[in-house]
Amino acid sequence: LMERTGTVISGSSALHLFQAKSKAVALQDLDIYVTREFEEIVLEHLKEVEGYKVKKTATRRIDYDSSAITKVHKLAHKKKKIDVIITDWASAIVPILQYHSTVVMNYITARTFVSLYPKWTNQMKSLVNPCIYMDDKSNLRTALALMKYIRRGFDVSAEP
User: Fold this and answer.
1) Is it the case that residue 4 has pLDDT exceeding 90?
2) Lowest mean per-residue pLDDT among 8-12, 15-19, 69-73, 112-116
3) To bridge 108 with a disulfide, which of 9, 64, 103, 149 should be the other Cys (CB 3.0-4.6 Å)?
4) Half-sphere exposure (Cβ direction) of 133: Cα atoms closer than 13 Å
5) Backbone angles phi, psi at 105, to 5 degrees
6) Can you tell me the distance from the alpha carbon of 148 to that of 43, in angstroms, rounded to the nearest whole number?
7) How much is the CA Rg of the chain, to the nearest whole Å?
8) How far apart are CA 83 and CA 9, in angstroms?
9) Contact at 8 Å (CB) between 33 and 8?
10) In this structure, are residues 93 and 107 in contact, taking their beta carbons and an 8 Å threshold?
């Protein structure tokens, strides 16, 4: 399904796979990124095959600050949660490139794992995306997201 639809997984799940077990962040949910073209195929699979139910759908920014995100579906099954994040760009990775900081610029495809800043991430360092403050996109949600990774032991900085 991931290969056929170009779907990628990012967020804490991708970061978890990259980190040494002793430093790995706790898994909370799964963030799946998909283009609008394959939105219904992915949602149908999660509902019909995996047993998830859509709990909430929102257009634009409910928990994410990215102009590349057009919609977020929040799904749940038992105690498991999935956010299906939709973009109308040609590639599902575009929203990941707009994340608040480098620590979460990692993703899993059907065939590989990609970390855009592997050395920094491995050293528990993160650089704030300059677009956040240059484009005046800083807000409480962004600050809370950055604080989440500071609490997890990352050194988050606005300068390399």
Assistant:
1) yes
2) 15-19
3) 9
4) 10
5) -90, 60
6) 28
7) 15
8) 10
9) yes
10) yes
Rounded distance between C-alpha atoms, residue 95 and residue 105, angstroms: 10
Q: Is 135 exposed, middle or buried (0-12, 13-18, 19+ CB in 10 A)?
A: exposed
Global pTM reads 0.86
- Residue 141: pLDDT above 80? no
| ∠ CA 104-13-131, rounded to 5° | 15
Percent helix, strand, coil in the chain, to 5, is 35, 30, 40
pLDDT score recorded for residue 11: 87
* DSSP bridge partners of 88: none
Cα separation, 92 vs 7, whole angstroms? 6
Q: Which residue, chain included where needed, has tokens 């800083």? A: 138
Q: Which residue has the tokens 């032991």?
A: 153
Phi-psi region at 15: left, alpha or beta (left = phi > 0; alpha = psi -120 to 50): alpha
Give the model's confidence band at 44: pLDDT under 50 very low, under 70 low, under 90 confident, else very high: very high
The reported pLDDT for the residue numbered 142 is 79
| Lookup: tokens for 50 | 């995996």
Position 26 pLDDT exceeds 80? no
* Residue with tokens 């799964």, as numbered in its chain: 30
**Are 92 and 6 in contact, with CB atoms under 8 Å apart?**
yes
